[in-house]
Amino acid sequence: MNISELITRINFLANKKRTVGLTDTEKAEQQQLYQEYLANIKGQLKNQLDRIEFVNENSTQH
What we know:
- The chain has helices spanning 3-19, 24-50.
- By secondary structure, the chain is mainly α.
- Helix 1 (3-19) runs antiparallel to helix 2.
């Protein structure tokens, strides 16, 4: 499931939770989707941090 589909499903379940409530199966799915979403965000952040290069005042890379 791509990130757009993931967010759409998370939003659908969140709206349903507020209006009519969720079944136990939907609650489990919601938790699993949240975990997938968080793992994706953490992966993106790690990827960005891994690309950072520090340069000291002598302009040499570390």
